[in-house]
């Protein structure tokens, strides 16, 4: 993986907010709905970082007047800046959908524009066969200047690999022309080798809402990471509804989505992709001929479970952000095949229905309708059930009982996991210390990484990494500043250390000097 990253380019570090939850919208009913959905997330204390708006033509009423154009829909955004400012005041980022057609995309944003873009008024002149990045990117500026935080790029399936990579590069370098010290965000429909070096995210496409599709997505996720594309996700719930779309399928897909780098719900009948949509009574605008079971539209079990996994995603964000930084340095994906760490275990090598989230957390998505148990494999060594804290010996298959609220998660012995509180958005400032959870039973080494989460200051040395070591026989934890790292404000930090499976908790103050704790 490191050699492949060396050849194609190491992954760029995305903004921290892009690892939070994103809510996609489709047919919009005007500014009251746009702001109402955003406010409901905050009122219900459902963590979220970004809202995404689809373009008009793929839906009757989107953010713009026509796909591929950059004019705001006057019925939905009568005063775009005022609405964007209100969304920003709710600590939400705004991502807009756009499409680009043609057979080739060439050049970079820094090239001279050799041919002006067509006026974009008819089907014939809107999509020239060849488009120049330097001519096309300026069309984004007026919308970007309103305060847009990211882009969602659709279409382009017919592009060759160089054109795809040119688009990935355009949406990484283009935003930096006006905001040079801000990490851009772009979610792409099409992949290409090397896209990670432009911080590009990828999603799995317009998939169907079926149990088989969900099951297939687990090995697809693993293989995508092994293909050098670490920032990947899927339409939670499936994009195209089928009779299999129920609250249960949505919940199981949401649980899986909480452990994908791109954590985003999207699909037709889009109100059913809202955490509270399954108790909304209508399912939202009827975008297909599918009739949802009326009983499913009053399902009160869904929202509390979704909230639990939203909060879990944000509690684990210190661990996840550290794993993403590791991805940038080593080329290892965040979603890891078991054989990356257990290559001498033939059962682990053959297993494609579970994966590691970073080095230490094993994720076993539930992908069967009506499941009451989940058979999974634990590689050698001791493991801890994340939910119950029970210690289990590995090197064997186990059957884990599950209810709808439970997706099996196991932490390996020797893990040192940095976790935090359930923030409402990734960059929310909360009083309270970082927590390091020690999982005893083996020696361990790990780290906690931090920077400002938004800018490129980390490239200038503004980053903190605390190296962690655990001596299991001595039950001793060591903390020290990693080489090249420096203390960031505040320069004196309380850290709570907890040993899993026990009640022993310590609070230490870390100032950059080595700390040893005996348990």
Please give a structural write-up.
It contains twelve helices and 26 strands. β22 (464-471) and β23 form a beta hairpin. Helix content is 23%, strand content 23%. The protein has 519 residues and is α/β, with parallel strands linked by helices. α9 packs parallel to α10 (302-315). The radius of gyration is 23 Å and the shape is globular. It has helices at 2-8, 31-43, 80-89, 123-126, 133-136, 141-145, 161-178, 211-226, 247-257, 302-315, 317-330, 346-350, and strands spanning 21-25, 50-53, 93-99, 104-106, 130-132, 150-154, 186-188, 201-203, 232-236, 262-265, 335-336, 355-357, 361-363, 373-378, 382-385, 391-393, 396-401, 409-412, 416-419, 434-438, 444-450, 464-471, 476-481, 493-499, 505-510, 515-518. Strands 1-2-3-6-7-8-9-10 form an eight-stranded parallel barrel, surrounded by four helices.
Task: Compose a concise summary of this entry.
By secondary structure, this protein is of the alpha/beta class.
Topology, element by element:
Elements: H1 2-8, E1 21-25, H2 31-43, E2 50-53, H3 80-89, E3 93-99, E4 104-106, H4 123-126, E5 130-132, H5 133-136, H6 141-145, E6 150-154, H7 161-178, E7 186-188, E8 201-203, H8 211-226, E9 232-236, H9 247-257, E10 262-265, H10 302-315, H11 317-330, E11 335-336, H12 346-350, E12 355-357, E13 361-363, E14 373-378, E15 382-385, E16 391-393, E17 396-401, E18 409-412, E19 416-419, E20 434-438, E21 444-450, E22 464-471, E23 476-481, E24 493-499, E25 505-510, E26 515-518
Parallel strand pairs: 1-2, 1-10, 2-3, 3-6, 4-5, 6-7, 7-8, 8-9, 9-10, 20-24
Antiparallel strand pairs: 11-12, 12-13, 13-18, 14-17, 15-16, 15-18, 19-20, 21-22, 22-23, 23-26, 24-25
Helix pairs in contact: 9-10
